[in-house]
Structure formats: C-alpha cells, structure tokens
Amino acid sequence: MAADEVVSCIIDKICMCGSKVILEDEIVHQKVELPEIKPIVTEYRLQRGRCRVCNKRITANLPQVSNTERRVSKKCASEYERMKEELQGSEYLHIDETGHKNQGKRGWSWVITNKALKLLKVTESRGKKVLKSLLPEYDGIVVSDRYAVYNYFNRENRQDLLRIKR
Questions:
Q1: What Pfam families does its record include (predicted)?
Q2: Which of 15, 22, 83, 107 could form a disulfide with 102 if both were Cys (CB 3.0 to 4.6 A apart)?
Q3: Are the CB atoms for 160 and 144 separated by under 8 Å?
C-alpha cells in the first residue's frame, strides 16, 4: 500500500560488541490507521392516515428503498446461490432463526454459518420448508437450539446447544 508518510528507522553503526555493522537491506513495516467513519443519515418521514369508512391504517411506502433492495438482491443472487452450495458441502453448520416484524407482519431471519460463510435468509416462515430450500441434501453436523424444525436433519448429526454446554 502506498504510504502517506515514510519514517526511516536507523540502526547504530557500531554493534554492542564493538564491531562495525554492515548494512544489508531494509524491511518495511506498515501501520494502517483507518479514518473516522462519518455516516450519511437519510430520514424518511412517512405520512400515515386512517380510512374514514373501515378505519384501516395506511402508511406511505418507501419506493426508493424497495427498488434498491430489488436491484441489490438481483445482483447478489448468483453469489447467494454459490454460498448455499458451499454451505451444503460443509462438515458442520450453526443454524438459528429469530422472529421480527416487517411492516407489521411477522417474519423470520434465518442464519446459517460455518467458519468462512454467514448466510442470512429473511422469510415469512419458521417452518421446515425453509431448511429444505436452503439445505436440501445436507448430511453434516448441525449445531442449533432444540426447536423441532431441526428434526429435519438426521438425529445423529444434530448437536443442540444445551448438550454442547454440558
């Protein structure tokens, strides 16, 4: 990496034993300092209203965000599939899911990891079909909690977190 500043560190010309030191070469040691990150914050103010007849609450959409999500998803699709394939061949995987709300609807974020990869899948389901779609033929070791959906994997390949703790 090109240096912004170069500092020469010079050795003594005489060794501690009293002999002259013969210069051979230089080694380079770089210290990299990252600048402070200044976030760019965009605030969206969404109008909200309520229907006069049915009393249904209506909130404005964020079309720019949705369009950006679609574009990014499309560009990442092939890499996402490659990661799924690589995880399928892993010796072991850590898997967990957690609930969240998205525009008032219940959703689930699934995380599948090994030493090198972390795959996130956001779905409307916490069911076995999610695991089947992500890891259709996985036969390695699964580290997870005791949620019943993990019974999808062979019993001898499942390691629940409580058993590992003991």
A1: DDE_Tnp_IS66
A2: 107
A3: yes
